[in-house]
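User: Let's play a game. I give you a shape written as tokens, and you guess the letters that built it. Ready? Here's round one.
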């Protein structure tokens, strides 16, 4: 029993370290990639004050977002751990359940993202993310202060299924961290990867304001959810950003 508890604790500590380290490094790479995008804009003579200010406005939305997220995250951690303590059907903690939770968290993100677009109250919040007139890395961090609420609701079922809260929280972090590189105009199509994974090409479709592209490609890491549920749209022409 002691050995099992020790192994579980080791797995949880490792998964926590991996998931949050990924997120920390994503922030570093996002800044570097944004500078690279500005460099590309300068070479292509698109860099101007409007594009710089638009990027800064996206970044500054993080201030109220992080304030509100801090309170919601604390409440979610308390809720998740409290419920996990009392349910009798706890799932084991190992590499297999970690991968399963990551897959389920990615599906939960798909469902959450779908509701963000389809329910007007939720769109009122999520529309902030879609309000930018440009598509660069800064747009990935353009959030409403109410955005952290819905993820708690859509990831809570994973707790009810018996998965450890740290696995669920860590998986959610990884799904979000993956998406920073999707918001750009520099990376083109990626061949066979386009079938399985969400890519910048797919996500440019998602952010487009063209009628044929509206409410498409909701996936986080995987694009297969959109293919399964009929919300996938392949890029056929250059999408128009709002």
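Assistant: Ready! My guess for every position:
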């Amino acid at each position: 029993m002691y050995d099992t508890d020790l192994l579980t604790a080791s797995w949880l500590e490792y998964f926590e370290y991996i998931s949050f380290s990924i997120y920390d490094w994503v922030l570093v790479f996002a800044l570097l990639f944004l500078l690279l995008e500005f460099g590309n804009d300068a070479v292509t003579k698109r860099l101007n004050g409007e594009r710089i200010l638009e990027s800064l406005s996206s970044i500054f939305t993080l201030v109220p977002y992080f304030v509100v997220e801090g309170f919601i995250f604390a409440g979610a951690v308390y809720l998740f751990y409290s419920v996990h303590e009392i349910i009798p059907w706890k799932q084991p903690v190992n590499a297999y359940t970690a991968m399963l939770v990551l897959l389920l968290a990615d599906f939960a993100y798909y469902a959450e993202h779908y509701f963000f677009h389809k329910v007007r109250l939720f769109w009122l919040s999520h529309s902030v993310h879609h309000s930018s007139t440009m598509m660069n890395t800064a747009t990935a961090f353009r959030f409403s202060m109410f955005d952290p609420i819905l993820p708690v609701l859509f990831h809570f079922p994973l707790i009810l299924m018996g998965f450890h809260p740290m696995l669920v929280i860590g998986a959610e972090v990884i799904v979000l961290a993956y998406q920073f590189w999707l918001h750009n105009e520099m990376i083109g199509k990626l061949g066979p990867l386009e079938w399985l994974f969400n890519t910048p090409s797919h996500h440019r479709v998602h952010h487009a304001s063209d009628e044929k592209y509206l409410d498409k490609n909701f996936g986080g890491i995987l694009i297969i959810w959109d293919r399964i549920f009929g919300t996938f749209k392949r890029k056929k022409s250059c999408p128009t950003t709002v």
